[in-house]
Amino acid sequence: METAEFLNKEVLNNARCLVISLNTSGVVYELLCPWGEWSVDSIRIGNPLPEALRAVLNTTPQSRQTRFFPYIYLDETQVVDVHVSTHGLSRKVILRDVSEVHRAELKYQQKAHEVSLLLEKQSELNRQLEIQRTELERAGKAKSRFIASMSHEFRSPIAAIMGHAGLLMQHQQGAEAPAAIQRASWHLLTLVENLLEQARQGEGVTRLNPAPVHLDSLLEDMRNLFTVQAKAKGLELFTAGPPAEIALEADELRLRQVLINLLSNAVRYTREGRVDLDVQTKDGALQFRVIDTGPGIEESDRERIFQPFMRLDTGQQAGAGLGLHITRQLIDAMGGKLELDSEPGRGSTFRFTLPLGAVDAPGAPPDLLKGRSVLLVEDDPDVLAIHQLYMQDLGMQVHSVTSLPEAFALLEQQRFDLVFTDLHLETGSGKELLQYVQGQGGDSRTILCSGSGVAANWREKLGGIADEFLLKPVPPERLKAAIIRVLSAP
Amino acid sequence: MISRKLCLLGAFAVGKTSLMRRFVKGVFDERYITTLGVKIDTKTVELENQTAKLVIWDIEGADPADRENQLISSRMKAYLAGTDGLLLVADGTRPVTIDTARAIYRWFTAEFPSVPAALLLNKSDLVDEWAAGEGCLDGFDGLLQCFTTSALSGENVERTFLYLAEALTKDENRADGDS
């Protein structure tokens, strides 16, 4: 664009312009301000141009063509568009003051960049979160594997201890030592289960293994478990159940865990008076209440006590502080809700309800189990001995082996009414054995037993290869109920 | 005295203006103020065998979100005309700005095949957030040198400018002069 033409346009636009003529040495010899009053301090007749403009000139070849450089900063606040043209040996520079429009555009640009930087930061944070999430997931899976194997490791010896203590109690009626071992084992098992439950929480699901529960024997067990402890503190312990036989379907191990947690707390924190375990039907459900005459719980503490690893400052130090937290979760998982009534200085009542089954568990004909043959496969000799004794007590003919090859060999020779096998055997998986039994096409019934917590979805997981799954330790009543169930099923 | 034009180019907010201010004036300002257009400053430097004037063009930043063929605006092209060297600047804590530098470099080497360029990974003071790792120099074939710099602490800033100045003044027969 020729200078005159450019200027005409700029004048019409009311722009502030400065026309600078330079001699061959680059010194200003003429300054024109065609519209209004505008001057730049650093540009004077007789002086060279300021550095920034000289740099622009040096960049431009000496040609007749006008060169245009938008948005050149003269200083922090003054910004110009620069036109450079050459006329013979002299050059002309036209500055147009664009500070105002530049300021407006800069303001917008600055905001846009700040927003972009924030978005960039956010997306980087999201990326890092995603990496961390993947790592956590991996760690979580490793933890789950560890827990599964640990739970197996823990349950088997506890099962052996409890089983043998139970046998001793049968043979030595009234002996205190086996009863003490039995009690301590239940507490140990509950503590282990609490810890495992807490560790499993990342998986989000509490696995349940519901089966008919014999409430009378459950209450009797609780009484046996806590009487000594309560007596030692001078407390009275009472248990009361509903008058009639009721059908409760629940994960008995979990229900015991819940009651042991609640009763442990009640006995631990009550200094004088009594602790009651009261179970009654209420509105078609079964209500459990653990009532104590302890110090009670202040209103402000009533939510806090359900936090993990939380203990109220009562001077008592026993326990991991997991009991109530786990208890509430287990009750939730079982379809109930743990509630607390408490009056400081008077005592506390923890209560929850569980849904009742519609039909009573079928009673077994007296001779259903008598003489029935069972193949028992278990590689832990202590657990094997216990299960064998329980089954013999039921009048069954037990053939026990400790390895898969022995089991296969026996199955080749004869048919069994029941095949009862451990899942994780040193010589392979109990699943293989059950698949073999299925493949034989006979009418043998099957029970799979394990110390690993695969219980909740075992049916889907194990693909229907067993008629029943039992989680160790298996108390004699549960073993009996399970065997009756699978053998009496059509 | 010979004079050389040096352009600073890269994504926005990588610290181009701060690097120039640190080099020319020896100061640093924490605030981020976008450059829209170009700021030009000069510094006379003592090199091994001569004194030289560096004319530094601090060019507005490119937007990493732009498509590669839109990264270099017509304004930037006008500013780059006649440059003797390029200082590509990226933020070592923002990998996306290294990608932008790489794309600019690809364009630049095609348009100015004989002009040397160096890469500055700036903000080396932000050690905990540093993200430029292995592979960040892939796609910068023919690059003169890569420096990690900090306009905040001044680390490597002087050294980088002088290194490029030496490289640009090696050819004694170059036309020079300052009108």
- Binned strand content of chain B: 15-25%
| Average pLDDT number of chain A | 84
Name the CATH homologous superfamily of the largest domain in chain A: Histidine kinase-like ATPase, C-terminal domain
Question: Structural class, from helix and strand content of chain A?
Answer: alpha/beta
**Mean pLDDT level of chain B:** 92
Q: What oligomeric state do the depicted chains represent?
A: heterodimer
- Which blocks of ≥5 consecutive residues of chain A have pLDDT under 50? 358-362
Number of domains of chain B: 1
Structural class of chain B: alpha/beta
CATH topology of chain B: Rossmann fold
Principal-axis shape of chain B: globular
Describe the overall structure:
The complex is a heterodimer of chains A (490) and B (179). Chain A has helices spanning 3-12, 51-59, 99-171, 176-200, 215-232, 252-269, 323-333, 381-393, 404-413, 430-440, 458-461, 476-488; strands at residues 17-22, 28-32, 67-73, 79-87, 90-97, 211-213, 236-240, 248-250, 274-282, 285-292, 339-343, 347-355, 373-377, 397-401, 418-422, 424-425, 428-429, 445-450, 468-471. Chain A has 490 residues and is α/β, with parallel strands linked by helices. Chain B has one domain: Rossmann fold (3-Layer(aba) Sandwich), CATH 3.40.50. The longest helix of chain B is centred in the middle third of the chain and has 17 residues, at 95-111. The model of chain B is unreliable at 173-179 (pLDDT under 50). Classes of the chains: A alpha/beta (490), B alpha/beta (179). Chain A binds chain B through residues 25-26, 51-52, 54-61, 67-73, 79, 102, 105-106, 109-110, 113-114, 116-117, 120, 124, and chain B through 3, 5, 12-13, 32-42, 55, 57, 60-61, 63-65, 75, 78-79, 81-82, 94, 96, 178-179.
